[in-house]
Amino acid sequence: MTDLKTIAMFPGQGSQYVGMAKILLDNFPYTNEVFEEAADAAKIPVKKLCLEGPDDLLKLTANTQPCIVATSIATWRVMIEEKGFKADIFAGHSLGEYSALVASGRLSFERAITLVRARGVAMQKAVPVGAGAMTAVLSMEASRLEEFCKKASKPGEPVEVVNYNSPTQLVVAGSCVAVLRLEVALTAEAVKFVSLPVSAPFHSSMMKPAREEMTPMLLATEFINNKTRIIPNFSAKITDQYAADFLIKQIDSPVKWCQTIEKVQFSGINHYVEVGPSKVLWGLARKILPKGQFKLANTDNVKEWLAQ
């Protein structure tokens, strides 16, 4: 592919792992500034958490979110400094939308870290531990799963599709009792599912308290109108106009990732690069896109990526 049109994709929660900043810091010492700036903004030891964990502290939502954004943006800076990398469109999965905004020049890094730290705290306390759950459902059509969710929901006990990750992977979230009712119904239909080890029903209507808490802070945030193209999770539509409302609605609305990738596929994008830790979005793109027609890459090991 000689004429590459590129999307930079930024991962969300679940992509973190202890040691995820080691390659960056060992090989590109200037990235230390990114982690120091993140620590100052979040008021937590971001670099130590990324390098040493421990895992139980790193996976706490309020810690995970600034650590992933910091690692993603440190990776992005290496890609620019070492290779002059550029993207035509930016998108991020859930939390990754903040990284996408920073990389696209629409949001300052310091403000993004401050926001995601507050977002993590708000999301964690929105639902008492043990009251919410999330489950990944495999190989079931979205419309059919949505109907199953409606039947499993009761007043005050919702369960909803919250992540449209790929044609073969959907994620539901809601109250524990509603999720359990859904799992019983799925078992009866021989549908495969995996309960996720999370502490809150992210992106479900149960996140409304977090949305309300974050709204004033997001409305007070300055977004730079630089005409870069970005795809918000809430709409899954390419836009060069961005406002706080996208991030406000995202908190208790589904992540339309499959729709996002399908949208950019038909817009002429043929180069998909995941920027940040792990290979989650790279793997999802492989499931969504027709085989052999697109160039896919991930930068979990950015040193190897640079050598390609």
Q: Quick one: biggest sheet?
A: 5 strands, parallel
**What is the C-level CATH assignment of the largest domain?**
Alpha Beta
The second-level CATH architecture of the largest domain is: 3-Layer(aba) Sandwich
Cα distance spanning the termini: 14 Å
**How much β-strand is present in the residues?**
5-15%
Strand order within the widest beta sheet: 7-2-1-8-9
| Radius of gyration from the alpha-carbon trace, in angstroms | 19 Å
Judged by helices, strands and strand pairing, the structural class is alpha/beta
What's the pLDDT, averaged over the residues? 96
CATH fold label of the largest domain: Malonyl-Coenzyme A Acyl Carrier Protein, domain 2
Task: Give the overall shape.
Answer: globular
Order of helices and strands: EHHHHHEHHEHEEHEHEHHEHEH
- The tally of strands reads 9
Q: Percent of residues in helical segments?
A: 40-55%
